[in-house]
Hints:
Layout: H1 5-21, E1 44-47, E2 49-56, E3 59-66, E4 76-80, E5 84-85, E6 88-95, E7 105-113, E8 116-122, E9 138-143, H2 148-154, E10 160-161, E11 172-179, E12 183-188, E13 196-199, E14 208-209, E15 211-214, E16 218-228
Antiparallel strand pairs: 1-4, 2-3, 3-16, 4-15, 5-14, 6-11, 6-16, 7-8, 7-15, 8-9, 9-10, 11-12, 12-13
Amino acid sequence: xxxxxxxxxxxxxxxLNCCAAIPGLAQEKGNIPNxxxxxxxxxxxxxxxxxESVNVDGRLAxxxxxxxxxxxxxxxxxxxxxxxxxxxxxxxxxxxxxVKQRSFLGVAFNVTDxxxxxxxxxxxxxxxxxxxxxxxxxxxxxxxxxxxxxxxxEKPGQFEKPVSPVPDPDGWFHARIRVTSTQxxxxxNEAMEPSLVVERLALGKVRRPVGLFVDSAEGLYxxxxxxxxx
Length: 230
């Protein structure tokens, strides 16, 4: 027997409600902030940086330029308002420069304020570097105590690693940052194995702001997607 149109409509609504109740399905596509509104204070909070929406290589992107330097305890952040995150997946495309000490870009999460947060960022000028510098291509930090300087001195080689496979240091690359309650794993482009795996050095378990990070120079960011765990 073919159900009546009214019954079919009821069954369709019930199916949608059931799917929404299944953990993870309702957030399958993640949260995608509007990069075109990055300069609008009603949509984004930008600190210690200038931010503008640009089109680069056919992508809608954000150009974030730091107005400070981590050496002085200041980095640039751009946080979409209303978006909070504890554990889950952060994905985005990034484009830096192959200019030594002039390209530091990534993401910040578990943000309490401009000096208290966790972050993962890249140094594209080290992607193809020779010697120890190549092992400093991707970095985890947990401010204020665990800056890159402190971690490199106290725990060398644990919280910064080379990136594999090696991206073009002047081109776009895709980062997937998986955050659990105790661990951070960083994958680049289509890699099945993480370039960086670290134990978190800050207490999470609270949904806090998440967004873009830049230090002492500028970076380009596109296709930001944040998918919290259910």
